[in-house]
Write a structure and sequence with these properties.
Shape: globular
CATH topology: Glucose Oxidase, domain 1
Order of helices and strands: EEEEHEHEHEHEEEE
CATH architecture: 3-Layer(bba) Sandwich
Helix content: 10-25%
CATH superfamily: Putative cyclase
Number of helices: 4
Oligomer: single chain
Number of domains: 1
Length: about 210
C-alpha cells in the first residue's frame, strides 16, 4: 500500500556507482586517482580544501560518442531527459551480453547489463564480460539510447578495435561503464544520472541511482 504522506517509504534508492578515491581501479595507462586535502586553521576554526586529480574515465563514468568519433557529441550534449527515466537491468549470468540478451532488453531506452564479472581491486585480473558486436547492433537498431554495464568497458579487454563502442557511438548512444549492480536484481527501474558540466570532453565521472518501485 502506498503511504500518501510519505511516498518515499514505498520506493528503494540503489546507488549503482563505485567509490572514487586513491583505491579506485583505473584503466591500464591512466593515472591513479589523487586526492590531496589541505587543512587551514584560524583560531578555533578549521576548514578543509581538497584537490582531486583523475581521468574522466575513472570509476563509474559516462562515455560520450565524442570519446571515439571526431565531431560527435561530447559529454556536455547529454540530455537530462535521457539520464532520467525507465531502465531495464539485464542479468547475463557471467557471460557476455550477446544478441539474444540484447533482443530481450529491447522495449526501453535505457539498458544496463549485470554480468557479475568486474575485476576487483586496483589491478585488472583477467578478462571480464562485455557487449558483443552483434548485440551492439541490435541495441543500436532497437531504439536504445543509453547502455550500461558493470565492467570497465563495453568491449572485451584487449580488443583495441572496440567494436561495441564504435557501433553504439555511431548510433548516438551514451555509455555507462563500471557500474555496481550487485544490489540491483534484473528488472524494471527508473534511472537517475547526469554528468558534470564538462563541455566537449569525452566522458565524466557520475553517481547514478536506480529507483525501485513496488
Amino acid at each position: 500500500m502506498t503511504d500518501a504522506k510519505n511516498p518515499e517509504r514505498d520506493v528503494r534508492w540503489i546507488d549503482i556507482s563505485r567509490p572514487l578515491g586513491p583505491a579506485t581501479r583505473v584503466w591500464p595507462g591512466d593515472r591513479a586517482v589523487e586526492v590531496v586535502t589541505k587543512r587551514n586553521s584560524v583560531g578555533d576554526i578549521t576548514w578543509c580544501v581538497s584537490r582531486l586529480a583523475l581521468s574522466v574515465h575513472a570509476g563509474t563514468h559516462l562515455d560520450a560518442p565524442g570519446h571515439m568519433l571526431p565531431g560527435a557529441p561530447g559529454i556536455g550534449d547529454f540530455s537530462p531527459a535521457l539520464g532520467c527515466g525507465p531502465a531495464r537491468v539485464m542479468d547475463t549470468a557471467g557471460a557476455p551480453a550477446d544478441e539474444a540478451a540484447a533482443r530481450r532488453a529491447l522495449g526501453v531506452e535505457r539498458v544496463l547489463f549485470r554480468t557479475g564479472t568486474s575485476p576487483v581491486g586496483r589491478e585488472f585480473e583477467g578478462p571480464f564480460a562485455f557487449i558483443t558486436a552483434s548485440a551492439a547492433r541490435v541495441l543500436a537498431d532497437g531504439g536504445v539510447r543509453l547502455v550500461g554495464i558493470d565492467t570497465p568497458s563495453v568491449d572485451a579487454f584487449g580488443d583495441e578495435s572496440a567494436p561495441a563502442h564504435r557501433i553504439l557511438f555511431s548510433a548516438g548512444i551514451y555509455l555507462l561503464e563500471n557500474l555496481d549492480l550487485v544490489d540491483a536484481p534484473p528488472g524494471e527501474y527508473r534511472l537517475w544520472v547526469t554528468p558534470l558540466p564538462l563541455g566537449d570532453l569525452d566522458a565524466s565521472p557520475v553517481r547514478p541511482w536506480l529507483l525501485a518501485e513496488p
